[in-house]
Each structure stands twice: as C-alpha cells, then as structure tokens.
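Weekly puzzle thread! Below is a chain. First person to post its structure in token form gets bragging rights.
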Amino acid sequence: MQVSSTTNQYQTLQTQQQPVTLPVENPITLPGKPSEPQYSNKEIYEASDGNLIRGDDGELTLTPQGETNINNAKEDQAAQAAAESQAEKDAARATATDFLAASSKKSQVEIYLAVATEGKADSDNATLDVISNLRDVQKQNNAVQAYATYQEAQKNGTATLV
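Winning reply:
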C-alpha cells in the first residue's frame, strides 16, 4: 500500500485558514460598566418604539407613552382573560342546561309511558305521585267524555248500552 506524501485538500485548507479578526471601534461605555456600550436617547427611544429613554441618572426610564402602552397591554390581557372565563362559564351553563333538558324529557317520557301503559315508572316517589294523579285525571276525563257521548246519543235517539 502506498501512502502519499502530499497533503490532501482538507489538510491544505486547514493550514491556510487563519482566524479573522475585525477591528473593534472603541464603544462608549457607562461609568462602572465598561463592557456595555452606551446608546443615545434617540437610539433607545427608536429601539423601544417610544417606550424608554435614558434618564438624567443614566438609568432607563419609561416614557409617558410607554406607561400608557403597558397599561393598555395589561387591560387587553385582563379583558382577554375575562372573555375566556366568561366563555368557560357559558359552556358550563350550556352543558347544565342540556343535562336538565334531557332529564326533563326523560321524566316526561317516563310519565307518558307509565300513564299510557298503566305501569310503574323507574323514578323517585314524587314522579310516582304525579303519575298516579295523572292516571286519576285520565280516568275522570274518560268518564266525562263517555258521559258526554252518552248525552249526545240520547239527544239523537241512538243511545245503546254496551
């Protein structure tokens, strides 16, 4: 096996590459903070969309517009949270309403079937009392209707006893 004594392209590239150093301008620094550059009020104002400026003491402070923007953002978040909370309450209320409607329909169906079949309903004693009362009213209505039919048949002269 022969080994070449010449370097390959990768080795050549590695030997030719030197780290690039850019000239660094002397940044203006704050007193006591030599590593941070100091920006002008205009640069700070533009970068913060008018929310911050540098005060006389060198610290960043909110502008009146910045305070208004923060208050508006807080109000927007509060309104959004209130809307979400209200939506959750409305959804819970709708679920409860649907449940009550289904329960009511179930009770109505149970009562109707129990009266129609003169059977017992599978529910509490209050429902059984209602069913019993409805059966009594149904029997009275049937008796009144039969008597009215009998009276009308008497008037027409076609009364027959069954």
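Puzzle host: Confirmed. Bonus trivia for everyone else. The chain is about 60% helix and 10% strand.
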